[in-house]
Structures are given as C-alpha cells and as structure tokens.
Amino acid sequence: MESVATRLQLGVQQLGAVLDPFRTVRSASDVPLWRGKIGSVQLEFVPHHFYVQGMVIVLAILYAINSYIGRWRNRQAVRAFTEVYTEALREEFALVGAGDDTVLVWNGAADAMLFASGRRGVDTLQATFKLSPRHDWIQSIGFPLYDILWLPATPTQVQDRVTLTFRLPRNEKQALGTFALIDKHALQRVRHKRYDLLFAKVADGDNASSARSLTEQMAIASENGDLTDRFLGEAGSRGDQQRKQLGLVEAMNGPGGRFVESFVVTDQPEVRPVSANIPSVDRIALTMRLPRTKSEAQQTLPVLAAVLDVVDALWLASNGRNSLLQLRPETQASLKKTRNEIAKVLEAEVLEGLEKDEKEDRDEARRKAQQEKFSKMTPAEQAKRKQVEKRRAQRKMQQSQTVRQR
Predict the structure, then answer these.
(1) Spatial separation of the C-alpha atoms in residues 176 and 326, rounded to whole Å
(2) Contacts with 310 (C-beta within 8 Å, 6 or more apart), sequence order
(3) Could you tell me the keywords of this UniProt record (predicted)?
(4) What is the pLDDT of residues 38-97, one digit of tens each?
(5) 206: buried, middle or exposed (CB in 10 Å: 19+, 13-18, 0-12)?
(6) How deeply is 262 buried, as exposed, middle or buried, from its count of CB atoms within 10 A (0-12, 13-18, 19+)?
(7) 370 pLDDT tier (thresholds 50, 70, 90)
(8) Are 270 and 195 a contacting pair, CB within 8 Å?
(9) DSSP state, 254?
(10) Under DSSP, is residue 216 helix (H, G, I), strand (E, B) or coil?
C-alpha cells in the first residue's frame, strides 16, 4: 500500500511539472503594456482588460470632434445670409445687432438671433435662426428615425430656417386681423398647434391663388375676405392696381418666393393664452428656408422690401394717411366682435379652472382632516370605521351594477 501511494504522489508531481509551463504562458493580448509599483502595491496595465473603457473614450473624442465641426458648419451656414441682410437692414434700421461688431447672438450651437430697431412703423425686428443639430449626431440620427418609425403629425427633423418677426406699434383703435401666405408643402406643419392661425381659413378653391395672380405654390389663409382683397387685391383684373401698388404678389412670384415658407400678419399670439387679458401684439412674421449663398440671399431681398412696404402701408393706414390697407368699417366691427367673444370664452375657462382648483383644495383639506381624525381613534374604532367604509363601497357598487342592468 505504501509503495502504491508513493507512486501516485510521484505521478502527480511529474504531471504538475509537465503542465506548469502551460499555466505560465500568456497570450499576446495579456502581455502588460506597463508595470510599476506604488508603495508596496505591484501594478501592471493590460490594455486588453480595458477595451470597454477604451471604446467609451474613443466615442467621446469622436463626439467632441463632431460637435466642434457641427458648430463650425452652422456658423458657416448663416454667414452668407447674415452678410447680405445686415447690409440691407442697416439701410432701413438705425440699430442692427448688439451695438458693436457682434451682429448675431448665439444660443447654443443651433439657435441664433439678429436684432434691429429704429425704423418708422416697426418697434423691433428679431431674426431668429433655427438650424439643423449638426453638432449632435444623436439628434441628427434620432430625429429622422423617429419620423420614419412613429410618423408624427409634424416632422421633428429640423431644417435650416430663419424667421423675421416685425413687431408693429400697438393700435388700440383698430384690429389687424389674421392673414397668411403659406407654402402648400409646409401647410400642415406651419399651422400645427398655432393659435393665431386658427382665426384664418385656408382658401381651398382650385384657382384661389391664380385668381389673384399669385403662384400656385402659395396657399391663402385669411380671417376675412376684405383682408385678402387688401393684401392681394380683388380676384381678376379689378385687383391689378392694388397688387401693383403693394408689390407683395410680385415679390412672392419672383425668384425669392421659392424660399418663403410662410408670411403671417396677425394681432394674436402664436401660443394659446391662458388668461382673458390678451395683449394686442400686432406683428408680421416672415419664415424662409435659409439661403445658402450670397446670390440666393440677394434673391430674397425683394421679399424683404415688399414686407417693409406692407409695414409702411399698415402704419400709414393706422394714422389715417393712406387707405391702401385700410379695412372697411364692417370688417373692423366683425374682427372686434370675434376678439370679444374669444375673450369671454377664455375668461369662462379661467373661472372654471379656478373653481376646479378650489374644489380640489377643499377635497384635499377634507381628506387630511379625515386622516387626522382616523389616526386619533382607538384600534377598535378604526376597525369599526373600516367596516362602515367597506359596506358603503359595496352598496355603491351594487347600485351601479343595478343601473347598468337597467
């Protein structure tokens, strides 16, 4: 027995000696890149063990590079338009930009604003740029995928656009009304969730645009027929003189009209107000697809000139010095009646909301009082109260079932 045990022990030792070299052999990926010692701790760095961390670092570096390039591309995208329009606006406004060499004010990498003031008939002009998120590839990839998979009412993918908002002097005596020219390809998206355009009805006739010598690319949305006649002239040859004097139709039919997405004249806020005290915010908003080159930006200058002519005509009409855009008295009465009715509806909604909030507050106070009273009861009283509530709930359920059966 002893000899057999000795032989087994020797065999195990020999097998261990044979396998020991294989245990100590490392693969090429496990070879440490660095060895060191900190204090009494022996350290070594094996890159293969940190491939996840390495991928995260590489992705972070690529994201930072893409963010920098995207910001640069967005600034280059608005450069041609800004140079052309800064020169044109300085001929019309006393102040353009922030008062120094800075013309654009950036809010992040995809939003910018240009400010101008100091012109007759205009309180302020704000040109807001909404650009594609080129600096963020998560949004650049995610938005199109979301649009393809979920098919929202309006696309979430942002295209380069610029909106020139002319805030007009407040006119307490006359209502401006709501009138708009909208590119038919963007009609649904432009009207989506806009409160001011709820006042305007889209002219859906086959020749609604061509009857007023307007390109079929544009849809007409107007609150009143008199507004349409003032801005576009009457249908047929009777409105030629009006169209010629104002020049809006000619500008929209020109080369710059293809960049126009919407032209909105309104005295209502874009977002639905939460109170009946609606301040009159007379404004003109011109939204365009952002021109890429200086030549394209120069093609849109006649549109800008036509909008400024509309501004002047409205200012002269408000002062009684020109009747080009002067609305008929019955039109003014109709517009004011509509606004008074809307104010009453909003006031009723506000009162209803206040009553609902007060009822919720009373219910909450009663519930807290009942909980406090319940906590002060003895265990026996609490059990009795629970039984009463349980029987009451059962009776209500039986009554509801009886009503359904009937």
Answers:
(1) 10
(2) 231, 246, 248, 265, 284, 325
(3) Membrane, Transmembrane, Transmembrane helix
(4) 878 888 878 777 888 889 999 999 999 999 999 999 999 999 999 999 999 999 999 998
(5) exposed
(6) buried
(7) confident
(8) yes
(9) S
(10) coil
Beta bridge partners of 219: 182
- The Cα-based distances of 365 to 82, 358, 359, 371 in angstroms read 59, 11, 10, 10
Dig out the tokens for 290 from the structure: 């952002």
SS (H, E, C) 306-319: HHHHHHHHHHHHHC
Q: List C-alpha distances in Å: 310 to 99, 237, 241, 259, 313.
A: 27, 21, 15, 19, 5
Which two structure tokens, joined as six digits, stand for 257? 């009209």
Tokens of 325: 């855009």
Residues 6+ apart with CB under 8 A from 362: none
Query: CA–CA separation, 246 vs 97, rounded Å?
Result: 29
Q: Identify the band that residue 204 occupies on the pLDDT scale cut at 50, 70 and 90.
A: confident
CA terminus-to-terminus distance, the chain:
96
Whether the CB-CB separation of 177 and 335 falls below 8 Å is answered with yes
Report yes or no: 268 and 243 within 8 Å, Cβ to Cβ.
Answer: no
Position 62 scores a pLDDT of: 94
pLDDT band per the 50, 70, 90 thresholds, residue 22: very low
* Residue-by-residue DSSP string for 314-354: HHHHHTTS--TTPPPHHHHHHHHHHHHHHHHHHHHHHHHHH
φ and ψ at 367, to 5 degrees? -65, -40
pTM over 0.90: no
Which pLDDT value is given to residue 372?
Answer: 81
Bridge partner residues of 104 (DSSP): 114
pLDDT band (50, 70, 90) for residue 24: very low
Q: Is residue 248 predicted with pLDDT exceeding 90?
A: yes
pLDDT at residue 393 in the model = 81
Among residues 100, 117, 98, 103, the alpha carbon closest in space to that of 75 is found at: 103
Secondary structure (3-state) at 99: coil
Domain ranges (residues) in the chain: 31-77, 78-327
The residue whose two tokens read 């990498």 is 109
Contact assessment for residue 301 and residue 84, using Cβ atoms and an 8 Å cutoff: yes
